[in-house]
């Protein structure tokens, strides 16, 4: 029997994780944590009967407590509640399915309690990979990537010596604006950006996919997970999202992982690693597919990607600045307060102003995030 906790259970990854659980008879759910969607969380509590349910606001927690008063769940709130969900005693595996840097503190708390981590929440590794990776080793726990490309790379490395990686070929759908000129990007709207060609994901990552910031975050994520430098990660456009990534080894061999674009596969792989359980999802039909295409990303137009490489090379607190500025920018874009191209301007401005702190502590990371947010509020929100 496996017991899990899910941080971000009401989102795209969270609900798909619960769908995987639904098809197994040996997985229990000890804790669920959500942000604001208490209607969905109530349904999940009734179906999966966790002992702990966390929501962000205490007011929402009070409302939820009344709704589920007939169950035995304990409803908690705030960062304390999130940590309680992450460290719940019965869980042996914690799914990081929350969006954004809010995942850093509960993920670290879970590792310190000896939990294995299945991580989709890439922002946590981008900002705090230098703290997370040593903690994973110190507490003798496992970190299983859930992000589709990193799960693919992890699968390609099965039985291989990671020291023999020459480079990682990180695939990228190209998003809804593939092939667009900077002039054409000037007028794209939120609803255009939310139309991802292959994946049905949360709003923030869907915009990140459109800007190629998602791929930039994934380059940094790959750096931490597989101990490779920025120069060893090459982004390859693969429009169909069928080749989920590949590894080129020092002898020139390239191993790729392929499959239909369905996040339940990497989620299930992380849940039962090293076992593979059967799954009744759609199969990849190579004959129907006919061909797969590859191309170079347009780094001049989609500036999120070179800005990410630059932040990774600078290291220390710079990836936090890159990520925090992007989180702030995407929220404003989704609120229709800035244009698509202004996302790049915000990131670039915040990164160019920042003096790198080497090896930042959690507190320093959170302080840097706060100062980026404050800068954006005073300079960009003034009208
Ligand atoms: N979706 C995908 O296919 C993929 C996602 N990822 C990564 O996985 C992570 C999750 O993405 P995705 O599922 O798409 O995002 P969603 O926006 O769909 O879901 C985010 C989840 O986080 C919860 N949440 C947000 N803020 C808080 C908070 N303060 N406290 C507790 N919970 C909170 C939300 O709760 P609520 O809705 O109740 O407010 C929701 O459950 C991201 O880091 C993303 O980059 C990686 C690869 C693929
Ligand atoms: C499903 C997944 O892992 C996403 O991160 C996906 O990769 C986003 O699409 P892009 O490849 O366009 O960034
Ligand atoms: Mn991905």
TrEMBL record:
Annotated catalysed reactions: 2-C-methyl-D-erythritol 4-phosphate + NADP(+) = 1-deoxy-D-xylulose 5-phosphate + NADPH + H(+)
Residues that coordinate or bind NADPH: 10-13, 35-37, 121, 123, 202
Alphabetized UniProt keyword annotations: Isomerase, Isoprene biosynthesis, Magnesium, Manganese, Metal-binding, NADP, Oxidoreductase
Chain ranges of the 1-deoxy-D-xylulose 5-phosphate reductoisomerase N-terminal domain: 4-129
Residues annotated to bind Mn(2+): 147, 149, 218
Cofactor section: Mg(2+); Mn(2+)
Domain DXP reductoisomerase C-terminal: 258-372
EC number: 1.1.1.267
Superkingdom of origin organism: Bacteria
GO MF terms, alphabetically ordered: 1-deoxy-D-xylulose-5-phosphate reductoisomerase activity; isomerase activity; manganese ion binding; NADPH binding
NCBIfam families reported for this sequence: Dxr, PRK12464.1
PANTHER family per record: 1-DEOXY-D-XYLULOSE 5-PHOSPHATE REDUCTOISOMERASE, 1-DEOXY-D-XYLULOSE 5-PHOSPHATE REDUCTOISOMERASE, CHLOROPLASTIC
Protein name: 1-deoxy-D-xylulose 5-phosphate reductoisomerase
Organism in which the protein naturally occurs: Porcincola intestinalis
Gene field: dxr
